[in-house]
Design a protein that fits this description.
400 residues; alpha/beta; Rossmann fold; Arc Repressor Mutant, subunit A; 3 domains; nine-stranded mixed sheet; two-stranded antiparallel ribbon; 17 helices; 13 strands; 42% helix; elongated
Length: 400
């Protein structure tokens, strides 16, 4: 292990130490100059820990064997680590209140020079929320904008799936260790994010996603983004914590408007009443990024609203000091191959369900009509390929 790896290994040792928060860790580093020296002077460092039980836990941890062994294990598992004293620590997080001392991740960290939008909202969302989360995710992903969220059931996961489906990148901030997929039902999304973005946490590897960790996790969702978008939230909900943190961090907040009679839209409508931006499509967010001149070195191509990434794949080694080199520059798995008839039928679909007559009319208006038997057969095939979905009564929509 070279000197740089040794320094990182001891920082991971300090990061994982029980009873040591960010302030305590930085105080110890200031007193002894390096994490390796902190480890050597563990007994003396006990004076920086305020509670007896925490001091006992820290001392037992410091005397438990090779301090670099746990870092070697996570590196072998493909997990990367950085800490505040290291140059690859994300600059966006250095500027937020209460930045994390360290981060672990699988995949990559978000490229600091590329725009990012965090999408959050209700877990128990409506069909309207499902459709709009998927639509925003797809449009943002297609525009080259990174989608940040928490991989939760509901709005979070739907937006992230939409971004990946469009060939974009998405990043999930987890409350527990990055080796813990939570919720378990999002395992497929978790695996996809590792390949086409990343899963990130300020918790040591192996930590369970305890309930009290989620509010702190939310400040990282907003910390990594330039704009926070809220899609469906009740007036009093966990989403409001993320909004408060985003505002404290100086991030712009947008909300999707909804019906005034819908409880799931009450939080969004209230945010708009208080001055949040109104977002009805991804173009609203793209315009805000552009007019805010956050990225003057990027151009938006007229008509398709795509940020022009002149650098190509910019996931450099500074973001993945110990990640797999093969994980950089990967693209999403190609979509299933469609026949010409299936491609035509797909053009007649929207994220909102349409009847057979409405689909036929849409194709007629596009100048690409299909005979009814061929259209029906193509829609069935699209559903089997998970490109489309059938609703009750033979209504069809694009897959979510």
């Amino acid at each position: 292990m070279n000197a740089e790896d040794t320094d990182r290994a001891y920082l991971y040792w300090l990061f994982s130490a029980p009873g040591v928060d960010r302030v305590t860790a930085m105080t110890m580093l200031a007193a002894y100059g390096s994490a390796q020296e902190v480890c050597r002077h563990a007994v003396s460092c006990l004076r920086y820990i305020d509670r007896p039980k925490r001091r006992e836990a820290f001392l037992a941890y410091a005397q438990a064997g090779d301090p670099t062994a746990s870092y070697e294990r996570i590196r072998e598992a493909g997990i990367s680590f950085t800490a505040m004293p290291l140059p690859d620590y994300p600059e966006k997080l250095r500027d937020i209140p209460d930045p994390p001392f360290g981060l672990t991740w699988i995949g990559r960290l978000p490229d600091p020079v590329q725009p990012a939008v965090a999408v959050v909202g209700a877990r128990q969302c409506s069909e309207y929320g499902r459709i709009m989360a998927a639509r925003f995710g797809e449009e943002l992903g297609a525009a080259g904008i990174r989608v940040i969220s928490g991989m939760a059931v509901g709005i979070d996961g739907l937006a992230q799936r939409g971004a990946l489906r469009a060939g974009g990148e998405s990043y999930a901030l987890l409350a527990g260790g990055v080796d813990n997929c939570y919720p378990a039902e999002n395992r497929e999304l978790y695996e996809a994010l590792k390949e086409h973005g990343g899963v990130i946490s300020e918790s040591p590897v192996g930590m369970e996603p305890l309930r009290q960790l989620f509010p702190a996790r939310n400040r990282l969702i907003s910390g990594f983004c330039d704009i926070l978008l809220v899609i469906e939230a009740r007036k009093r909900s966990g989403t409001s914590i993320t909004v408060d943190m985003a505002l404290e961090q100086g991030r712009d907040v947008f909300a999707l408007p909804g019906r005034v009679t819908d409880g799931l839209s009450e939080g969004c409508n209230n945010l708009i009443r208080q001055g949040a931006g109104i977002a009805t499509c991804a173009a609203d967010l793209i315009d805000a990024l552009r007019t805010g001149e956050l990225y003057p070195d990027r151009r938006i191509r007229t008509g398709i609203h795509m940020f022009d990434n002149t650098d190509g794949d910019s996931h450099g080694a500074e973001n993945t000091p110990h990640g797999s080199a093969n994980s950089r520059g990967k693209r999403r798995t190609p979509p299933p191959l469609l026949s010409p008839e299936e491609e035509t039928a797909l053009r007649g679909l929207d994220l909102m369900p349409r009847s057979m007559d409405e689909i036929a009319s849409a194709l007629q208006a596009l100048g690409t009509p299909l005979e009814l038997p061929i259209l029906m057969e193509s829609l069935v095939d699209l559903c089997m390929k998970n490109v489309a979905a059938e609703e009750a009564g033979r209504f069809y929509r694009k897959g979510v």
